[in-house]
Amino acid sequence: MPRHFISVLFFFLIIGHTKSQPDSRFRPFDWVLYRGSGEVNSITEGYTFAYIATHSGGIKRFNLYGNYFDEPLTTAQGLQDNSIDAIHFDTVTGLLWAASPKHLQYSFSREGDWYAFELETLGLSKFDHIDRIGSSSDYVWLEARSSYVKIDHSSGIMIGIYPNPDELDIKWSSGPYKGEKGLREIFENYSMLDGWMFNGNELIDRLGRRTSIATGFIGNHGNIYFGTREGTIFHGSKTMESFSPISIHLNNTDVRSLFHAEDDLYIGSQDFVSSKGISQYNLRSSSSIHFPFEETINMTPTPIYSLYHSNNELWAGGEGIILYHNEKDDYWRTLGQDRGVPPGQIFDIYGNETHIWVGSSRGLGRIERSTLSEDPIGIENIFENISIFDIDSIDNRLWLGTRSGVYIYSNIQSQLLQISDLGRKNHSELIRNVVSIEEYDNVIYVVSDIGITKFDIEEKVWDLMFISGVYRSENVFSMALNDKFIFLGVDSGLIKINKRTGLVRDYVFPFIGQVNDIILNGKEIWLGTSNGLIKFLWKRDL
Questions:
Q1: Which pTM value belongs to this model?
Q2: Which one, of 307, 267, 158, 275, lies nearest residue 533 by Cα?
Q3: Are the C-beta atoms of residues 140 and 149 closer than 8 Å to each other?
Q4: Which of residues 33 and 155 earns the better pLDDT score?
Q5: SS3 assignment for 281-293
Q6: CB burial of residue 344 (10 Å; 0-12, 13-18, 19+)
Q7: Backbone angles phi, psi at 186, to 5 degrees
Q8: 456 CA to centre of own chain
Q9: Hey, is 249 helix, strand or coil?
């Protein structure tokens, strides 16, 4: 190839070659995004991990020695997309290569610092699809459609495009499964565990549902991996001659609601078709239990807008219904309007020892826990067709955050109060569309249209703490508090406000999405977002 052509080509490659990292302030796993995998597209094996490319969950990392999934690689680590078409570990250079729609990327650390090339700079169109990646001693090869792209294995410079590779010693990672002889013999002769069967063409799960093998890979040390169209990942070994499905962190692709109870996070999604159910994620062991709608008796498919857990009972608010799970006896029930559930989207659920309070986009309801039946208190008609966004119990009173303001109900006195009935108000602005009410250290914080208002329980004084312009008047969906900071979940990400100074720190990264719910747990913040479940080690950015 002429030298001047290579120089010109290198110039254009540098223009399209970008380093991709969300923010240099953070280490690769200060932010971690957990999403359901979707279809499994490609598998490769490195020094410590098997890397599994998925359609919607980025790159899953399966620890070769501990047989568990470590933190995944997603857009939170700098990948251009959570949809990964192909993956490859180059044993010569130690680089990890990943292909996604429109981009090819590589990383020296195999964690962060991803360098990206647009496919057009590699002689492909933006509509091309890389099916498989391999490498020889000097080059990396990309299989796309009916052609093969040869690139330098350390710089990513394109060498040429060929109808067939001009090298023989190429080690390929897996691509789409096409019935390769070596893999097919393994599938036919190995046992499938946990109720799965292989009938020669398809896999059948324990419920009789059929799916096909999407990709398979024979690794080192007797390891074999394969994945299916619907996202199940299997691991087997030549020693045991059997395959078992291995559980990933989370099946949910988006997260609308969270509830923290002891070591567990309960997780619900608005997109119930892709997420398929409710998850229980253990923070200590990083393991999860999934309750699929399709597999669970009396569990009606619905978006999950709210969650509440206590006394071994889980209450999940959906579209005009509540899904109830008795963990002790392990059964589910669907409760509707005949049981006291108000119509509309169930935005919040609060419970005490005897009752469950339910707030929806169209009203208020109360359910007796022992009978799972309606037990009205007498104020329900006041909130008919009024959205109730938040319910909490503070200072032995029930606080309701609604579209029309804050209401306080005293069960002892059977009174329904408003802000004007409770203490002195030091500002003239009306409080409307109250999306969150939280109490911390004897102070109640209220987020509404005008901003953040606080109420000192001892002094009985209302003050406007921060106007909404402080956080750019963005729509607020959630709030969490500690001694020093207020955390707000908004359309574009996460906002942290210093209570004393008013200093605002924005975390507005595309991988976050809309923050629907926040759980503050020591050094970790867990975010339920439109993109999935996110863990943020926030104390490294004080």
A1: 0.92
A2: 267
A3: no
A4: 33
A5: EECCCCEEEEEEC
A6: middle
A7: -65, -45
A8: 36
A9: coil
Q: Are 147 and 161 in contact (CB under 8 A)?
A: yes
Burial class (CB in 10 A: 0-12, 13-18, 19+), 381: exposed
Alpha carbons 422 and 515: distance in angstroms, whole number:
31
Distances (CA, A) of 223 to 125, 186, 237, 442: 36, 12, 5, 57
Outline where 109-201 has alpha helix (H): 181-189
Angstrom distance (rounded) from CA 326 to CA 193: 29
The DSSP code sequence of 104-125 is EEEESSSSS-EEEEEGGGGT--
pLDDT, residue 54, reads 97
Kindly state the helix (H) or strand (E) to which residue 245 belongs, with its residue range: strand 242-246
Pull the structure tokens for residue 35: 């999403």
Which runs of E-coded beta strand occur in 491-539?
A: 493-498, 504-507, 515-521, 524-529, 532-537
* Strands 451-456 and 461-467, bridge-based pairing: antiparallel
Residue 151 identity: I
The amino acid sitting at 186 is I
- H or E element that contains 172: strand 171-172
- In a 13 Å sphere around the CA of 103, the CA atoms on its Cβ side amount to 22
Flag whether pLDDT at 5 surpasses 70. no
12 pLDDT tier (thresholds 50, 70, 90):
very low
Nearest to 115 by CA among 16, 13, 20: 20
Enter the DSSP assignment of 338: G
How far apart are alpha carbons 41 and 228 in whole angstroms? 9
> pLDDT (tens digit, 9 = 90+) per residue, 338-361?
999 999 999 999 999 999 999 999
In order of their start, the domains of the chain are: 3-246 (2.110.10), 257-541 (2.130.10.10)
pLDDT in tens, 431-484: 999 999 999 999 999 999 999 999 999 999 999 999 999 999 999 999 999 999
Can you give the pLDDT at residue 18?
A: 59
The dihedrals phi and psi of 171, each to the nearest 5 degrees, come to -100, 115
Residues 6+ apart with CB under 8 A from 54: 37, 38, 39, 40, 41, 60, 83, 84, 227, 231
E strand residue ranges, 21-127: 31-34, 40-45, 49-54, 59-63, 69-73, 86-89, 96-100, 103-107, 114-118
Q: What is the DSSP string of 388-448?
A: EEEEEEETTEEEEEETTEEEEEETTTTEEEEGGGSSEE----------EEEEETTEEEEEE
In angstroms, rounded to a whole number, what is the distance separating the alpha carbons of residues 444 and 450? 16
pLDDT band for 542, please (50, 70, 90 cuts): low
Query: pLDDT tens digit string along 44-103?
Result: 999 999 999 999 999 999 999 988 999 999 999 999 999 999 999 999 999 999 999 999
Q: Rounded distance, CA 490 to CA 509, Å?
A: 12
> For residue 145, what are the CA distances in angstroms to 55, 104, 127, 129, 159?
18, 15, 11, 7, 18
Q: What is the DSSP-derived secondary structure letter of residue 149?
A: E
How far apart CA 538 and CA 258 sit, in angstroms, is 18
